[in-house]
Amino acid sequence: MEPVWGTLPVVAERGQALIEAIVATAIATILVGAVLAGLVAANAHFGPDPAREALDSALAREMSIARNIVKYQGTTLAPATVATSVPLPNGSPLPATLELQSTPLPGGGMQITITAAATWNNTAENRSLITTLLAPAPLPGSSIALPGLAPAPTGAP
Q1: Do the bridges between strand 110-120 and strand 123-133 make them parallel or antiparallel, or are there none, so unpaired?
Q2: Which strands make up the sheet holding 80-87, listed edge to edge?
């Protein structure tokens, strides 16, 4: 085959493709490393917060107790603030403050608010949980007379 007039033949140096492959692999590795480092940092920043989870667990536990106290007619809750500690997943206690507030509602219901506050890693964590009980249940063993209903006559066929 005769060369075309005015063009130079392409001659590649031996090993040039290997060097290009190594450089391309190094660039791809650096990019993947940067992306993974960003993902790990984002997971640490936006991932689960042990203090928040511990406070939420304490709120759920205390709300369950408060609901059981006020589920019957005639019971009330006095406002209270308690300094306590809540367990963190790593086992060390987190000093926290729990505050209970209750608001009577028309019709005999009640709104209960429990707030937990703590400082962890120089960051203030404040969490609250609110529940509303619309109609308290009658006391166990009490009889309920429904309004508007008369007792059935006795002796009538």
Answers
A1: antiparallel
A2: 80-87, 93-104, 110-120, 123-133
Domain that holds residue 70: 50-133
Cβ proximity of 133 and 156 under 8 Å? no
Span 126-146, pLDDT tens digits: 999 999 988 777 777 777 766
Tell me which DSSP letter residue 2 carries: P
Same domain assignment for residues 82 and 42: no
The helix (run of H) or strand (run of E) holding residue 82 is: strand 80-87
21 and 83 co-located in one domain:
no
Q: How many domains does the chain have?
A: 2
Q: Name the pTM for this structure.
A: 0.59
Tens-place pLDDT, residues 57-115: 999 999 998 888 888 776 778 889 999 998 887 778 889 999 999 988 887 788 999 99
SS3 of residue 92 by DSSP: coil
CATH code, 87: 3.10.450
Judge if 38 and 81 occupy the same domain. no
Band of pLDDT at residue 12, cut at 50, 70 and 90? low
